[in-house]
Give the backbone structure.
Amino acid sequence: MAKKESNPTKDLYRELRLLPWIQLWQEEVPRFNQAGTQERANRVALIRAVGAGFSEANQPSLKQPVRQWLLSLLEDPSEKIRRYATNALPKIGAGRAEERQLLQLLQKSEIDREKKFVGQALNKIGGSATLDLIRSQDAPLPHLMEQRAKANLARQQKPSSVLLDATLPHTPTLRIHLRCRTGLEPILTGEIKEHSAQFCILEIRPGLLTLAPTSAFRLYDLYSLRCFSTASFLLGTLPKSRDLTDPLARVIASPLTRQLCQTFTQGPIRYRLEFVAKGHQRSAILQTAQKAYSLCPDLLNDSRQAPWAIEIHPDSAGDWVELRPRLTPDPRFPYRQQDVPAASHPPLAAAMARLAGPFPDETVWDPFCGSGLELIERARLGGVRSVLGTDLSPTAIEATIGNWRAARIPGVRTNFVQKDFRDFLQISGCTPGSISLLITNPPLGKRVPIPNLRGLLLELFALASVALRPGGRMVWINPMKIKPSDPTLHLEFQQTVDLGGFACRLELLRKR
Ligand SMILES: C[S@@+](CC[C@H](N)C(=O)[O-])C[C@H]1O[C@@H](n2cnc3c(N)ncnc32)[C@H](O)[C@@H]1O
């Protein structure tokens, strides 16, 4: 195999990126400024390193001088230096002054490569001045995209948002895809049947339920369901062909996309385009977005802070094109103010709570409460008199207390204590048979290795036998196919669930 040729500029860039950013700024930049023409050309990687490292360095007070430096480099006699400065400017959050200067450079330059790079930078930061220039020309400017300038302007002027409360008139042909962790389909199905008369289930596949609306609905109605991971609207199915640009652009610009986006968006409609299973597809995305824009200039492709994602999901019968509201943070779990490293996936915690069922007068214990999601999700369903959360970690207990407070669940007695779960009987009020529901996602030994996980889980079973009252339930994630030695703990439900790349069992045991 031929040896890869080394590239001194790339090598230097890698070296410089290893240095503290402030050292680049305080030592390397002055050295660069004083260097002769040849050395400056040899060290252009510094410009890239300063731009790339700026936001990581978290030095907002230096933004102005860094900008000034890059702007001064746009006047450099060397095209290479100007090009590196052009590329670095968008990285530091450039504004109108930079836009003006880049536009001047674009008009002045006679070098095609330079024009291309200036065009690319303007596509990232250009606003009204860029738009004016594009519109004043009779022929399109080869490197400037009207769509990008419009999206930049829209983002800066009125950031759009997804409307949860707007109503979509009844559209019986609409198909909604709810994705969930594989294994949670039966629980999600139960939730839909019990709570959502506005939707009916048409098909259930592993990790995917297809619904149709039965009436007008709001996104708010969809997001009253708690056990799914993502919700999206099926816009169309792509033919099995090599070049998907045209068919995909037509689906993106279709009346259905427009109707959904216009109903559910406040502000200009911007979407991010993603090929879910294919990784970066820069040129396919660019071509498709340009084509879609020519068909419907109201829909703007924009990878930054777009309220919508249009996603291409693989399917054997032809890939699906789906429109997904990008709701971050998830409006269903606003109480999640604090987190712990191994926090449960919130829809999984909601599914566990549903599996536990809304029994009255519950005394609930989560021995490994982390940030408290299972306790909160169970308490939200009602019928809970008191909750106990134990965790070894003080940060976890702090997170549970903060999240519980934010969840605003009235009338429930709480006790969150930093303790080993094995100290249960030492906690005031915790006596044998005092718990009606033990609900927990224990340490799984994946992210944080546990020396003797089996031993720990056997101790959990032993303590569950003691703590649960007759008829009490244990709902938990079993990572090891482990069984209780106490025959009075009877397995009533078991389902293999994907916990993000590894399978565990979601179980319900009842104390006889
Ligand atoms: C998977 S996390 C729980 C996540 C939690 N369900 C949530 O929603 O954030 C497991 C938790 O068990 C705690 N833990 C580990 N060993 C423990 C022990 N012996 N007693 C109590 N807590 C323990 C860890 O500190 C961690 O917060």
